[in-house]
Amino acid sequence: MHTARGGSILDQNVRERAEALLQQQQFRLWKQTDQLFALLLAMQWVAGICMALWVSPRAWEGLDSHIHPHVWEAIFLGGVIAAFPIALVFLRPARTSTRMVISAAQACHSAMLIHLSGGRIETHFHVFGSLAFLSFYRDWRALIPATVVVALDHALRGMFWPQSVFGVLAASPWRWLEHAGWVIFEDICLIWACVRGAHEMRVLALRQAELEVSNNRVEAEVARQTQRLESVTQELVSTARRAGMAEVATGVLHNVGNVLNSVNVSAALVVQKLKNSEMPNLVKAGEMLRSNNDRLAQFLTNDERGKHLSSYLIEAAQCLGQEQTELLGELEGITNGLSHLKQIVGAQQQHAKNETLRERVTPVDLFEQAIAMDLGTASGEQLQIVRDFEDIGPSALDKHKGLQILINLLSNARKSVIAHQAAAKQIVVCTRIIQSPQGQMLRFQVRDNGVGIAAANLARIFSHGFTTDRNGHGFGLHSAANAAREMGGDLSVTSDGIGQGATFNLDLPLSNVTAAEEMMMQRGRTEAWQ
Questions:
Q1: Which sequence spans correspond to the domains of the chain?
Q2: Taking a C-beta distance cutoff of 8 angstroms, is the pair 146, 106 a contact?
Q3: From 179, 190, 499, 504, which residue has the greatest number of CB atoms within 10 Å?
């Protein structure tokens, strides 16, 4: 029912719009035709005067002559016939009454021209031409006044003055019926044409109304869909922003996870060393000395335990010294890891402000620090670290972003060679200065003889979420590539295939550090720490 009601309302709207369009078209047609007849009536008036002057300009009475009455009829009668309808064209355009007056006036002009020509048969065709012009209105009612005027004119003048209408002194009183018959025959044809033309106008108006209604519906639907699209676009932008924030957070957490893994391994080693420490035995030795304090000399010289106590204390002291050194090394690694964690957080805060913490860094030192934080905890895995470093001076770069990237690369290389289970587990680290279209670049290279990368995966290796590791998440290399681009560099990879190892190249712009830049870097590091 709702659909039927909606369709009914739509049909009513179409009909109303079609009626309005039809009225507009009819008004425009009638007005233009009115203007055409105004011009035609004026031209016929002038033509009638010219005909009167050409056919019989003067009348003679013996030797005297004067202007023929036809001339005065053409001037004054023709002017009266044309003036009133022309005035109505400008005062009441497109009115039914105006059309009727024009129709009658046009027939009167035909009658006057027939009279001025002396009833010549050629001028009778002016009647048929007038009716044809009146059909331009596409209103069959406009033919009626002209037909009535022509019939009455031919009937009356045929009876009382046949010479002015038929060109003969005497004519049959029914001859006007012959002329009226031809006029009616033309009327029938023209009426059919007018009705057909009016019907076509109505059909065109209906189609235009349907098209307009359809266009309005389409425009409304487009506007609705556009609004919906804008809403979806805003939602997508919001989703993309949240996804970007999640991606950044994931990258940060991945880097933090790498560092925490190193810190966790170092802390585990510290705990293990403390559990295996000689400190409990040293405590027992102290208790032994305290219990024999009153006979200490006899205990040290005569008791078997006392005789070995001095040598034990010397060995324990040496073991504790070595243990202290190892623990200090591990604690220093933990301290560096925690410091790096703080720098990661600080760098991320600076990144949110669109700032970069550049500082003076020696490439070899940066690589060694990354090796110490990642590969330094893999001493039990029998990895061979091959160093191939060029002597390169300090360069200005974001140290901690570079450190994050290198730790990711070294961590992936370590996992790759362990998974490959090769006889010689080897990782080669290199630093080089290379030439590129952007100028001199500082290259950090990590090359391993691990499981390698399939050719099909090389193009996707840096994509977010892509990984070949069952336990991986696909965040590390993606965040590393993003960090490299943020530093103005590039991260690339090559591999000969599965089982052939892989080579990762981190290329960063090589730049020297001025004293002013060093001060700004120091200030930036201070603000980041704060």
A1: 2-221, 277-352, 359-529
A2: yes
A3: 504
Task: Residue 395: name the closest of 349, 438, 444 by CA.
Answer: 444
pLDDT for the residue numbered 91: 92
Whether 254 contacts 404, CB under 8 Å: no
Torsions phi, psi for 121 (to 5 deg): -65, -30
Beta bridge partners of 491: 506
The order of strands in the sheet holding 439-448 is: 384-389, 426-436, 439-448, 502-509, 490-494
Tokens for 285? 């030795």
Question: Dihedral through CA 81, CA 84, CA 85, CA 87, nearest 10?
Answer: 140
CATH of the structural domain 359-529, one choice from 3.40.920.10, 3.40.1260.20, 3.50.30.30, 3.30.565.10: 3.30.565.10
- The token duo for 130 is 């007038």
What interhelical angle do 399-420 and 363-373 show, nearest 10? 50
Mean pLDDT by 10 residues, the chain (530 residues): 52 84 89 90 85 62 54 79 90 90 89 76 82 89 89 79 68 72 86 90 89 86 87 73 58 63 69 68 71 69 67 71 71 70 60 59 86 63 84 84 86 86 84 87 92 87 76 75 87 89 91 56 50
Q: Please, what sign has the CA dihedral across residues 15, 20, 24, 27?
A: positive
pTM over 0.70: no
